[in-house]
Design brief:
Lipocalin; 8-stranded antiparallel β-barrel; 3 helices
Amino acid sequence: MKLIATLALLLLAALPVQDARPLDLVDDVDLSRYAGTWYEIARFPNRYQDTCASDVTATYALRPDGDITVVNRCRKADGSWNETEGVAKRAGEGEGNAALKVRFAPAFLSILPSVWGDYRIIGLDPGYRWAVVGEPEREYLWILSRTPRMSTENYDRAVAIAQANGFDVARLRRTEHSP
């Protein structure tokens, strides 16, 4: 029994530990400045973007009702384009504009909490030239830029912000953009 218990403890110790700290969000995000097109510079691999081979963008547009239209676009390996439209809204009272919920499921499913994904802005250049976006479970991470290329200095800053927030930055994969 002692041997089994010891082995179980060793196996548990080898499992990755989920960072339980809350994310350090950007203090204030002017959503009208945040709106527009962002180029994905790097991301954690995820099943929602499995077909995206290159040229990934996200375009945000403020709506009269206070929500945000989100259009994600990417080029697939065969050269065709994939485009998905969704909506973002503030995550809740007292959370500020850096905490959003995003839905790409049909509108009639909006009443289900499970269709809303967490979108947290944890890094933002003062000039709104680049941003770092993640979610509390640290399974998703994106580094975004207003241009398809990002300087090494700014990329390193973005990666440092993600790492300081407990993201395993070794999982980041750079995104290619056509010239």
